[in-house]
């Protein structure tokens, strides 16, 4: 799984401005950070939320931002990193830090196996009264583009097998009521969930770039000629499809 993120890391970073940074803004607002806070950012990717958190906590604060993919962390470190922000390659579930004022997890909980166990592990890192903020996808993320990509791949005999464990996890948290129940079920209090509508117009080039930045890349055929045909087929079928990236931001207090 990490290999998939490593391969897509450079392309993922290219989506920061249009996708990951705008969606990190409400996540950071929900965390209600203060100057001097200590923050754990689990599954930090290329650092969209960690950088905003570092600004919010200031030079007296500390942000430990952890991702299992070395490629993602390399991308994160390629930008200017303030001193209070520490990017590390590590598994979010075994990271030893604790006593944080806030824990962030932006679109990462799906990749942590049993999501209830993962939430319990993340919440355990909080000091009493600390706040957790996580973002998940609302509805069926990237649905229209995914269908077109899979149709273009199917014509080459390529594609994905059955739904992945991650896709199943995404479906378990993709509505306000599911996310509310999830947070309450972990014994957290002051649970709040906000919906964020986020759409990005797609061109043939940007759609192809998004596929390569995401785990959808695993559906593509390896043969270069087949890959070129998939690209052409996708470009021809794209029409006015936009990237559907509506999110839910959940927050709660320990
Ligand atoms: C969709 S990206 C989210 C990136 C970032 N939070 C953002 O919003 O821009 C999911 C990230 O989870 C990371 N990841 C998956 N499993 C992980 C684990 N066990 N521990 C830490 N990171 C993990 C992947 O490497 C990937 O960078």
TrEMBL record:
Statement: the UniProt record of this protein carries the keyword Lipid biosynthesis: no
Annotated Methyltransferase domain residues: 39-130
BP GO annotations: methylation
Gene3D superfamilies found in the cross-reference section: Vaccinia Virus protein VP39
A Pfam family reported for this protein in Swiss-Prot or TrEMBL: Methyltransf_25
Keywords of this entry: Methyltransferase, Transferase
Designated name of the protein: SAM-dependent methyltransferase
Top-level taxonomy: Bacteria, Bacillati, Actinomycetota, Actinomycetes, Micrococcales
